[in-house]
Write a structure and sequence with these properties.
Blueprint: E1 4-5, E2 12-13, E3 16-19, H1 31-43, E4 48-50, H2 59-67, E5 76-81, H3 97-111, E6 116-121, H4 130-142, E7 146-152, H5 156-169, E8 174-178, H6 192-198, E9 202-206, H7 241-259, H8 264-273, E10 280-283, H9 288-295, H10 304-313, H11 334-337
Parallel strand pairs: 3-4, 3-10, 4-5, 5-6, 6-7, 7-8, 8-9, 9-10
Antiparallel strand pairs: 1-2
Helix pairs in contact: 1-2, 2-3, 7-10
Length: 339
């Protein structure tokens, strides 16, 4: 794989990053197989691994730590904090100094390492000053426990606020942003990606297959597609007009991929990593077979005709189902826009 520079850090990373959310009880409970998947990804040229403390309640981090024994220095290791880690403890979550200083030690222990290359805030905190979060993360960088810091699912305005606060307070700045991005979820093209590019940040996009919608398995009228009973979330509710529209679009995209001599997976991944504002696309395989099916997308370059046809099917900046966006949700709640 042709590596890329992560923002302005000078760190070289692969165009595909291995997401570890599916390693552990949330996805694949077989530790041995999960370790083999990680090793296969590294052998294929992936040098970027992304996980989070909350994935399987810390088990994902433990599996990654086990897999990287003897290979730690070859990997750019990223993890995240913010989500609740103990439902009975209201302070075992969030972006406060109190929690960050405590939780980084837990992640270091689970990952079996003495430093984290990229430590990311999993979500913006509506009730925590960004200066507090950046101040705690700055201390971790100065202590050598963290090399770089990043954000995830921030809106354009939140990215700007964090960059301004870092400059004004002389704190470490976020060098990366991790948003959702796929053929079906193009909302970040309108504001987030241009903002990230202006600040010279790296972009690690997640869900290039749109949570499985672009895996090739979920086709219109196919028996294997999701149902509202199996996946009750709004993102997978088949009674939703937005999701019905997604099924129609997936069918058009599948036909486009076939005409271009590509699998739908290759089309989807190539589309994401070909955007000039994207550094790496995070793939999240649950099985070795899924990993193998996704590796080829890193070697595909889409022609101008194919990209033009994609724009006709899904217009730039459009997310077909707003439930697929993970940023800006709070600003759109009725309580935030109605008196």
């Amino acid at each position: 794989m042709q590596n890329r520079v992560l923002g302005r850090t000078g760190v070289s990373v692969s165009p595909l990053a291995l997401g570890a959310m599916m390693f552990g009880p949330w996805g694949n409970p077989d530790v041995g197989e999960s370790v083999r998947i990680i090793h296969r990804a590294l052998d294929a040229g992936i040098n970027f691994v992304d996980t989070a403390d909350v994935y399987s309640g810390g088990v994902s981090e433990e599996i990654v730590g086990k897999a990287l024994i003897g290979r730690r220095d070859d990997v750019v290791l990223a993890t995240k904090f913010f989500m609740p880690m103990d439902e009975n403890d209201p302070n075992a979550r969030g972006a406060s100094r109190r929690w960050i200083i405590r939780e980084v030690e837990n992640s270091l222990r689970r990952l079996n390492t003495d430093y984290i290359d990229l430590y990311q805030v999993h979500r913006p905190s509506p009730d925590t000053d960004v200066e507090e979060t950046l101040g705690a993360l700055t201390d971790l960088v100065r202590a050598g426990k963290v090399r770089y810091i990043g954000s995830s699912s921030y809106s354009g305005s939140q990215i700007v606020e964090a960059q301004w606060a870092a400059r004004e307070r002389r704190l470490e700045r976020f060098v990366t942003e991790q948003p959702p991005y796929s053929l079906l979820v193009r909302g970040i093209e309108e504001d987030v990606l241009p903002t990230v590019q202006r600040y010279g940040m790296g972009t690690l996009t997640y869900s290039p297959l749109a949570g499985g919608w672009l895996s090739g398995r979920w086709r219109k009228d196919a028996a294997g597609r999701p149902t509202s009973s199996a996946r009750p979330q709004a993102r997978f509710d088949m009674s939703s007009p937005a999701n019905q529209r997604k099924l129609d679009v997936v069918e058009e995209l599948a036909q486009l991929a076939e005409s271009a001599g590509l699998s739908l997976i290759d089309l989807a991944i190539a589309f994401v990593i070909n955007h000039p504002g994207v550094t790496s696309a995070i793939i999240g395989p649950r099985t070795l077979e899924q990993l193998e099916s996704q590796l080829g997308g890193a070697e595909v370059t889409l022609s101008a005709d194919v990209l033009d046809r994609i724009d006709q099917i899904v217009a730039p900046g459009v997310t077909l189902n707003p439930e697929d966006n993970s940023y800006g949700a709070a600003e759109l709640l009725p309580s935030a826009r109605r008196r």
